[in-house]
Amino acid sequence: MGENLVKTLIIDDQRLSRMFIKHDLLDDSRMLIVGEAATGVQGLRLVEKRKPDVVVLDYYLADMNGLDVLQQIRRVRPSTIVIMHTASEDIELLSELQHSSANAVMTKGSYFSLVEVIHFIKSGRRYFQPNLVHELVDLCRK
User: Fold this and answer.
1) What Å distances lie between residue 110 and 7, 20, 77, 134, CA to CA?
2) Bridge-partner residues for 8, per DSSP?
3) 107-128 pLDDT, tens per residue?
4) What are residue 32's phi and psi, to 5 degrees?
5) Ramachandran angles phi, psi of 39, nearest 5°
């Protein structure tokens, strides 16, 4: 039974955000939270120690940005699904995140379920929040 659980690690400097993410994930019995970290350094230690299937990663961390953390995760656990989860709605930043090696990009205010996004990605696809696609297309046209 435990082998079918999706081991998930949360890296976010805001305690309240981590609580909301946990609440969303734990609504699904297939999800297992294997750790939480408030900094990139703590998160990277947990990635190596706990070997999560999925990392929900905030972009803005106190000690480093999410893209730097993402690059280091890719070095040690390249098959780990990484969901960039940010409060920013800056379309240029979101475009940069979309072009990174992240499997998904979501804003924290999104009404899309993290669990649904994780299962979508596990089926072999990348995910970008649909309501941001039009803004990205407009940015590309400039």
Assistant:
1) 22, 12, 27, 15
2) 33, 54
3) 887 767 888 889 888 888 777 6
4) -130, 120
5) -135, 165
Kindly report the CATH number assigned to the domain that includes residue 135: 3.40.50.2300
Record the pTM: 0.86
pLDDT at 52 over 70: yes
Q: Which residue has the tokens 């946990």?
A: 22
> How high does pLDDT run on average in the chain?
85
Query: The domain containing residue 55 runs over which residues?
Result: 2-141
Burial profile 24-45: b = 16 or more Cβ within 10 angstroms, e = fewer? bbeebeebbbbbbbbbbbbbbe
- What single letter denotes the amino acid at residue 120? F
Q: Specify the number of domains making up the chain.
A: 1
Q: Supply the angle between the helices 114-122 and 15-26 in degrees, to the nearest 10.
A: 60
pLDDT digits (tens, 9 = 90+) for 73-88: 999 999 999 998 888 7
- Which residue type sits at 11? I
